From TrEMBL:
GO molecular function: metallocarboxypeptidase activity; zinc ion binding
Family statement: Belongs to the peptidase M14 family.
Family matches, as SMART domains: Zn_pept
Cofactor: Zn(2+)
Protein's name according to its UniProt entry: Carboxypeptidase family protein
Record carries keyword Hydrolase: yes
Transmembrane helix in keyword set: no
Residues the record marks as active site: E352
Region listing for Disordered, in residue ranges: 1-20
UniProt-listed GO biological process terms: proteolysis
InterPro entries assigned: Cytosolic_carboxypeptidase, Pepdidase_M14_N, Peptidase_M14
Family matches, as PANTHER family: CYTOSOLIC CARBOXYPEPTIDASE, CYTOSOLIC CARBOXYPEPTIDASE 1
Length: 392
């Protein structure tokens, strides 16, 4: 939808309407009414075969530099986590490289944000996107420059590759540390986190060398490539939430989880971290397995040690705010963290990063972003280097 509209405060000025598109990797928006640049009406599309929606990512073109544009996501109140819009600010970019926060407001019905155009084209998103192109380049760099092995390749519902990378030789007696990311495809900070892990492995500093002397790392940088490509929030191409599929995965409906579980059974697991993003809580935190039937004091101590060490390592982590703890025996065993922790009797954590900001160390310009997610990935490896000898 396009056209022009005379601005009500100045009937002599006719403002051209922008062009709005989302027909690209991770794009998601529906144009409702574009005639007034100061009242651009949009809506977020739900995941395919699922009612979930929250992720948005669109391009605005034919902008007049210096002119004000105001965007309204009119169905924000119907989104999967509608309380999450309070205190949230959208991100924008002129080049898809540098992203910054745009002041945003939520009135209980719609999310609104606006700015003076800094270029003739601008992109807007729920969080700094991690593209499939960048993913492919990351996998190539991991193999050709960081010394990781392409151990196995799974396939998504739509046939996209799911690489499993290993750093290490698989020698007997070494600890097997698993990190996966982006089971929920709209949580792009999770793959930024994995890029930071691979960056640190490529740097191969003395702490990483000490870690690799006793442990192998198994990495799945993107568990849900179909959902990420289609601009989904929670589900794969068949409308399934992968992080609710760890008790009944199948090659037909959740091949992504099915593949990783097969590889875990083949190689073993001594530690598991599942990287996610949380829409509502403005902090970085972990959730663990305290509700599992097989939860033990040994696992509880490992969880505490991980949190203590990461708090000491970086201000971009804290252990005060997070999810309500499960009661003993009441864990949701369909979640990856709980399922893997129980199956392998190992330290198993969900690592959550915010869509908003980490309020314990805020950044008004970027909020939580890709760079901070990546830096956290490197910091987690420092913690694992300290903990690996004592995981069993």
């Amino acid at each position: 939808m396009g056209g022009t509209r005379t601005h009500p405060q100045d009937p002599t000025v006719t403002r051209p309407a922008p062009l709005i598109s989302a027909d690209f990797d991770s794009g998601n928006i529906e144009a409702i009414d574009l005639r007034d640049p100061l009242d651009i009406q949009l809506a977020i599309r739900p995941d395919r075969q699922s009612p979930h929606f929250q992720w948005f990512h669109f391009k605005a073109a034919e902008l007049q530099v210096g002119q004000r544009y105001e965007f309204t996501l009119q169905n924000a109140a119907q989104s999967s986590y509608n309380n999450a819009w309070h205190g949230y600010h959208a991100v924008a970019s002129c080049d898809q490289q540098t992203w910054f926060r745009v002041p945003s407001t939520f009135d209980g019905q719609a999310l609104r944000f606006g700015l003076d155009a800094q270029g003739s084209e601008m992109w807007f998103a729920y969080f700094e996107p991690y593209s499939r192109q960048r993913h492919d380049a990351l996998i190539n760099r991991a193999i050709t420059q960081a010394g990781l092995q392409l151990l196995a390749v799974g396939q998504s519902c739509e046939g996209r590759e799911i690489p499993l990378l290993r750093k290490g030789d698989g020698a007997p007696g070494k600890r097997r540390l698993w990190l996966i990311a982006q089971q929920h495809p709209g949580e792009h900070m999770a793959q930024w986190f994995m890029e930071g892990v691979i960056d640190r492995l490529q740097a191969n500093d003395p702490q990483i060398q000490a870690l690799l002397a006793v442990a192998d790392l198994y990495l799945v940088p993107n568990m849900n490539p179909d959902g990420a490509f289609h601009g989904h929030l929670r589900t794969n191409a068949r409308g399934r939430d992968l992080n609710r599929a760890w008790q009944d995965s199948s090659a037909e409906y959740t091949p992504e989880v099915f593949f990783v579980q097969q590889q875990m059974d083949k190689h073993g697991v001594d530690l598991f971290i599942d990287a996610h993003g949380d829409e509502e809580i403005p902090y970085v935190f972990t959730a663990a397995c305290e509700g599992n039937p097989g939860y033990t004091p040994r696992i509880a101590q490992l969880e505490q040690t991980f949190r203590d060490l990461l708090c000491d390592r970086t201000a971009d982590f804290q252990a005060v705010h997070g999810y309500t703890r499960d009661k003993p025996g009441e864990a949701n065993m369909t979640l990856a963290c709980n399922s893997v922790g129980e199956r392998f009797d190992c330290l198993s954590l969900t690592l959550e990063m915010p869509f908003k900001d980490h309020d314990a160390a805020p950044d008004a310009l970027t909020g939580w972003n890709g760079q901070r997610s990546a830096r956290l990935g490197g910091d987690v490896l420092s913690v694992l280097a300290q903990m690996a000898p004592n995981l069993r």
